[in-house]
Amino acid sequence: MDTDYAIIGGGVVGLSIAWGLLKRGKHVVVLDGEDGGFRASRGNFGLVWVQSKGLNQPRYAEWCQQSAAAWRGFADELGEATGGNLGLEQDGGYDFHFSEESLEETVAKYEVLKAKLGGNYPYEVLRGNALRREEPEIGSAVVGAILHEQDGHVNPLRLLQSLAQAVRGLGGAS
Ligand SMILES: Cc1cc2nc3c(=O)[nH]c(=O)nc-3n(C[C@H](O)[C@H](O)[C@H](O)COP(=O)(O)OP(=O)(O)OC[C@H]3O[C@@H](n4cnc5c(N)ncnc54)[C@H](O)[C@@H]3O)c2cc1C
To answer: What is the rounded average pLDDT for all residues in the chain?
Structure first.
């Protein structure tokens, strides 16, 4: 088979690269494993996460922010190409804490990172009643949570399925 690119692995990474190349008019073949094989792309939590990433590496933290910001356009484009809905929601995410110490420790780290990012690290700390007003079902063992505005999630199975469909739709071979 003649092809410009052979991509080994049909998880989200391989399929995303394949889709990008196909959109640029390249011929692509994706070589994947068995249907029953374990795939991180199938078993992950679907978090599109920013908080706590790159705590000691501000540039990496910025990449995570840029990547999360690019998700809406990516999800819309993929949804339009496949007629699917990836279930992307980016209305914030919680990091729950079971002790004041760990909460304070984490907030201190976030403040250091926030300063390095020029203040672009939008989060708030919710404790006690403030947290329970937002999340009434939360257990009493949780002393507080950090709500980071840039966090979100996507449906990982729909993402994988849509990418595979988009790749096939543009003539990608497998
Ligand atoms: C439990 C868990 C939870 C996670 N939660 C999140 C999360 O919330 N948010 C997040 O961003 N990330 C999360 N991740 C990480 C994320 O899932 C992975 O970074 C991502 O799925 C990696 O995609 P991939 O395509 O590189 O790998 P995979 O999905 O593992 O795909 C690799 C593919 O390569 C194929 N393959 C392997 N060897 C060969 C071979 N020799 N020949 C041909 N094909 C081969 C396999 O069959 C497979 O299809 C999580 C990971 C795990 C394990």
So the answer is: 96
Q: Percent of the chain, pLDDT > 90?
A: 91
Is ligand 1 within 6 A of the CB of residue 46?
Answer: yes
Identify the structural domains of the chain with CATH numbers, from first to last.
1-45+156-174 (3.50.50.60), 47-154 (no CATH)
Q: Is the minimum distance from the CB of 106 to ligand 1 under 6 angstroms? A: no
Atom of ligand 1 nearest to the CA of 10: 49
Backbone angles phi, psi at 120, to 5 degrees: -85, 75
Q: Which two tokens stand for residue 117?
A: 């990012």
- Kindly give the interhelix angle for 58-82 and 100-116, rounded to the nearest 10 degrees: 90
